[in-house]
Design goal:
CATH superfamily of the largest domain: FAD-linked oxidases, C-terminal domain
Number of helices: 16
CATH architecture of the largest domain: 3-Layer(aba) Sandwich
Shape: globular
CATH class of the largest domain: Alpha Beta
Radius of gyration: 22 Å
Number of domains: 3
CATH topology of the largest domain: Vanillyl-alcohol Oxidase, Chain A, domain 3
Amino acid sequence: MALSDQALERFAAIVGQDQVLTKPEDLIPYGFDGTAALKRMPQVVILPGSTEEVAACVKVAAELGLPVVGRGSGTGLSGGSVPVENGIVLCLVRLNAILEVDARNLTMRAQAGVITQKIAEAAAAQGLFYPPDPGSIRISTIGGNVAENSGGLRGLKYGVTRDYVMGLQVVLADGEVVELGNKCVKDVAGYSLKDLFIGSEGTLGIITEVLLKLLPLPAARRTLLASFDTLEAAAETVSAIIAARIIPCTLEFLDQMTIQCVEDFSKVGLPTDCAALLLMETDGHPAAVEDEAQRMEAIAVQHGAKAVRRAATEAESLELASARRNAFSSLARKRPTTILEDVTVPRSELAVMVRFIAETAARHRLAVGTFGHMGDGNLHPTFLTDERDEEEMARVHLALDEIVGKTLELGGTITGEHGIGLAKKQWLEQQMGGAAYKLLGEVKRAIDPRNLLNPGKIIS
């Protein structure tokens, strides 16, 4: 059902006529996110410029009974920001101001539409450090990161987005604005309401501002690249590093297909005659960094590394990290459709899981490149396929179902950082169990009783 002219006029009166998009050519970019094969054209996209405008738009939508989907840059990988039928899309990219960097309290306040890379740069300019670094850091928004509870390459040592959120400003389903959290390091007053909204994927409220915790910049960093003849040797090296009580800031894995694609794309001199690579990075006090680098190198050699390369300069370290960040885009050049999956298992089960993914891909005659944050057990088996080929896509779905089943069998989770959205919700009750899944629905109904905020995502 198309929105009436009167409804469009009401939204235009709030944000300005030029910030209400209705022409098909303008709407196309908002009909999908980074998830393959999940597309739906919105009927209208509204770009508010302030929290007040967001709240006013949500109030009008609530009055008219219109579903609302919040959106940032649209880089999500679970279909969380895909439009819903008869709804509106509120895109927050105009809320793009860093409001405060408080070096005395090690905090930053920013609007939801600020690009994550800008957050990191603003912190670094004050000699501070914002650790979360999703693969989409150069284009994703901080509000989207909070809504999805994004992870990243440094998750092993520093955690995920949730670990750096001290406060939120959120617009609720009726348009009311709430402020949650503060700059206090310790605060146990009442329920931790802000944590309900972190990772809620826009189903409970629309995040308009975030208050972030910052850290001092690490004094030193060392990057190593180890190559292996087998996937299992790389996985076992990761388990051995963790067992040795070493927590590097980055411990990343690439299989042979991913290595070749990344090298073809980035041309940074990655060895392509191996089955797997580990990108290992340690940071902190210079003496501790050197000690950990030596120990990780020794462990890698003990577990069969063909070679271990140390980055000689900061530029080389950044180049290697950038190559790893390009894994998804590098693989995407191979086939028309790239399905980037996201499963996590206990680190002790990594070798089993990596082997199972490779065997499953072979059994279903599929091209799958696997990379990921192996230090925290988070793997990204990436299917290179063609969504126009129905027979091949059927095999993809069978393989994915087997991979998810094995993940849960090993005590893992169906998503380590991408969220549930539309793509993973069919398996959520299987992971959570009936009682916990029912509780999830009760929370949703309590905060959004009319089911107007991003309906159909996470739970039905």
